[in-house]
């Protein structure tokens, strides 16, 4: 069995109601109720949503509500980081002496994050597992049953990939019996306010004095932004604003946002790489303006001193360092 799986489960269960209570948007509440209903079944699930949306939270919700009495394991595998060989070892293990997650998880849940990134070879192996609910180790004469639930998630729509023969037709229809599409944060203005306050209050719990709060103008600014990075970006922006604000009130001047609004028909004139570098430069530049020190900037942004020095040189920001 997986180490510390009970502690992980209890932590998920403890935080579940608090996390779900943050959502006020009607559409998001509908999807949460759908997840609760799906949790009662044994079917595999497919979660869609842009990068930074709450796919992990919905996966955890389904798992906890299904297994509340048993405290079973919940494991996430990020498919985008694993080549075929490592993915296969993660799932199937290395023989009887070193079983993989399909066995270790038992009746729990495996969350396959960014399943669209799997190669066709790994997809074919996964297809056989889901279809037969079993697999056979090399050298074995009998099959090993698979009891765990599979929750797959993707930031991409898989159907176009199926049409382009980059994703297996049969695997798509096996995992999409119960699909859930998580709406982007830009369509959930009420959630922006609620989540931003939560991130600030979470920070405040670490301090007796100097409690932070969001100025009303800041809330309006946050709700007017498109949030291409969704909830993940909102958390990052609030965390940065907390460190940069010089008073208890977090004002619009403390908020650093990417100057793009990717609306439905926007035509981008720059590549994603260029946009991300522009965003990175603005973050490093703002920190250097505030602290005048590469080492302090590295501490605030939680990276190594060497990394910050390379960024300063890359973006020509040496003038912000105090002499």
Describe this structure in words.
The protein has 323 residues and is an alpha/beta fold. The chain has three domains: 5-181, Rossmann fold, CATH 3.40.50.300; 187-264, Helicase, Ruva Protein, domain 3 (Orthogonal Bundle), CATH 1.10.8.60; 268-323, Arc Repressor Mutant, subunit A, CATH 1.10.10. It is built from 14 helices and nine strands. The protein has helices at 5-20, 26-38, 55-67, 84-92, 101-104, 120-132, 158-163, 169-175, 189-204, 216-224, 230-244, 272-291, 294-301, 305-315, and strands at residues 45-48, 74-78, 109-113, 134-135, 144-145, 149-154, 178-181, 213-214, 249-250. Strands 2-3-6-1-7 form a five-stranded parallel beta sheet. Strands 4-5 form a two-stranded antiparallel ribbon. The protein has a two-stranded parallel sheet with strand order 8-9. It is globular, with a radius of gyration of 22 Å. The N and C termini lie far apart (56 Å).
